Amino acid sequence: MDAPRPLFGKDAERPGLHSHAERGNDLVGVLPQLCRIMAGFSGVSGGLRLLKWRQCGLLSLIIMLSGCGNSDSLESFGGPTMGSTYSIKYVRRAGLPASKDVQIEVEKILADVDKQMSTYRSDSDIERFNDLPANRCQKMPEPVLGLIRVGEQLSEQSDGSYDLTVEPLLNLWGFGPQAREEKIPAAQTLAEVRQRVGYRHLRIDLDQLCKDAAVEVDFNSIAAGYAVDTIAAKLDAMGIHNYLAEATGELKAAGKKLDGSPWRIALQEPRDDQQIAQKVIAVDGYGVSTSGDYRNYFQQDGKRYSHTFDARTGAPVLHTLASVTVIHPSALMADGLSTLLLILGPERGWDYAQTHDIGAFFVIRADTGFVTRTNQAFERLSGAKN
Fold first, then answer.
1. Comparing 228 with 47, which gets the higher pLDDT?
2. Nearest to 341 by CA among 18, 1, 56
3. Residue ranges of the domains in the chain?
4. Model's pTM, two decimal places?
């Protein structure tokens, strides 16, 4: 259930994939020229010329000292992660670490997430658990247990529609790690697989995760959000408070850009044929996540079957809600809630967002194109003006 990436449009920040710095002031080449100009007005007196050069030296010192506060730089780096990419931008002020040092810390976090939560590597903690038969337990790192608790909370609040144990369904319908033909499965096969789905089959016993059925956990709807939150916490701990952190489309921004303006994110219209910026939002201190049905789907008998599943039915959702963007203080919760709202659909999802004061931007399919719906919480948190 990977969430599609928000589009970084012309007026938005698109984190780069290569490390670089943008300097605010560069006095190295300017000062010698300034001194030569001053010397040119020194007349014939050598003493006056010496005075002018001394004045130039003093002026240079003053300019350099006054420009120290403007020597900040915008650093950026990125690379591959979790079958997609990540990117980081941050404002580096005096005394803050260089991008290569920050990148080392960020990639340690991403490596840990991949080792613990990936369903695409057989040696990950969660895949080793998925391979266990029923009535078995496995010791798990605390981050995995934490995500299980978040998943349980979202499942209970959605009456079981959202569920982390949908991996057998994803595989059956052709959307999972096990490559299969994308088609509607036979009713009997679907009924059998549904016996291995349900968050209530999981329980935590101290530092172990246990199951009473052969369930398989899929963290794709929350793992990237967790990674972004963890990266953001690391940046803050390193003294970096102005940044835009993104992993597989989930992102969190804090502070301001180098020029003092807010980080802006352009949200993409839910189309698979072209990229169009539909709405631009300003973000400071919040995570942003978009889930949609327009990137990973197949069509059969005139119906669109996407990779977003309602665990209660065992099938992809069939409604007119094309995408949902959520803004939340936690990128993890934004990630999970955007999926939850997409599962619930345009009516139930909207009611849920309103009841829980979740900032949400809905894009709904209509005969004439798309209809959008934005609640007050979204406008309040995003600072969006369009």
1. 228
2. 1
3. 25-70
4. 0.81
